[in-house]
Amino acid sequence: MTVVIAGASLAGLTAADTLRNEGYEGSIIVVDPSTEIPADRPPLSKQVLAGEWPPEKAQHRAAARVPDLDLDLRLGVAATALDAASRSISLSDGSLISADGIVLAMGATARRLPGDQPAGVHVLRTLDDCLSLRAELEKMPARVAVIGAGFIGAEVAATCRGRGLEVTMIEAAPVPLGRVLPGDLGAFITDLHRSHGVEVILGVGVEGLEITSEVGGSEHVSGVRLSDGRVVEADVVVVGIGVVPNTAWLEGSGLRLENGVSCDATCSAAPGIVAAGDVASWPNPLYGEVMRVEQWENAVEQGEYAARRLLAEIRHEELPAPFATIPWFWSDQYDRKIQMAGRPSASDEVIIPEGSLEEHRFVALFRRGDLCTAVLGVNRPRHVMQVRMKLTESLDWQTALSVFG
Ligand SMILES: Cc1cc2nc3c(=O)[nH]c(=O)nc-3n(C[C@H](O)[C@H](O)[C@H](O)COP(=O)(O)OP(=O)(O)OC[C@H]3O[C@@H](n4cnc5c(N)ncnc54)[C@H](O)[C@@H]3O)c2cc1C
To answer: What domains can you pick out in the chain, each with its CATH number?
Structure first.
């Protein structure tokens, strides 16, 4: 019996760990183009980038378990093609494996600006990305420009300010996170950063990069050209404009690829093939919505679930109930811990039963009709956890609100 796992990061290794925990004794081949087990990613925009943690500390629990899991771990090897009908998977080392089960956990790649990227331009996804950015920050550049005010961009901006650097954050939308959060909350993110000395430019696109030629002919970024003609001078530019799911190699596989690997409600992409983590999209029955969730906790939960579901199929046992999860996310920016449970939309009504946006300490509940779709808290962990517990039982609005007496 052979299970192949594509991706040796959070979702993939959690799936491997779960297979063993569930008593699977067959072969587990795990492949990943990285030459080392990928680092746990959240500290890469926080403690490691800040220089507070050595890189080795950024390791997640499933990675630490690898020596006990009896894996055929093939690092430096990518999955290159798949025939879903026969479950044969080709690898970059030339091998072709006929698998009984496949877990697709290839995550996503940071999106880059079009064109050549001169020195000084960074994205942040891997430990290497983090260390090369960190090395530049240690040289104390005169200004860092962060393109994109999503969570990665906002965390990088906060970490750079923590290092005493001048930062400009540029966002094309009129408010940060406008696609996922109602305007007031996006305005809170703007305010938080401005109050810490970040120059925040909103509603202006990026036209291109300013480049200078250095002695010896190499090129280095010197600024960001905006669509309104302004130039933000910067020696370091961090591009945080989202990610692309790693599915290119699955073209022609027979799987449906729509915003990642399209799965059914049990995370199955085809018979004997499951997907988990940042690469997987599935209809979450709790929200009646097809979603792809780029969050740490989801990679763990879905990795566990997908492995259990795959084993049930291989063993001809009853399949587990659909993967119905309340997404959970946190972000650390300055001395603020932002935590969110649920799936808000920009059109939800926002009610703040605790604290206030002005204090930068509050709990926000998101309401859609009779449902509480999400809770977001800033430095209010107890309340957020209480609402989260309620949401796992029911999304009923009154039940969520009852936490606040
Ligand atoms: C800098 C940063 C900070 C973050 N901070 C937070 C946070 O504070 N809170 C939070 O909730 N989430 C955070 N996240 C998100 C979270 O880390 C991700 O959701 C999580 O890592 C997803 O895990 P994954 O295993 O699905 O994908 P990944 O971690 O992307 O791993 C996918 C793996 O698949 C491999 N792969 C790619 N292509 C192939 C192929 N063809 N064959 C085989 N393997 C392949 C890749 O090399 C990679 O190792 C952060 C992410 C980043 C980048």
So the answer is: 2-42+54-109+243-314 (3.50.50.60), 112-239 (3.50.50.60), 335-404 (3.30.390.30)
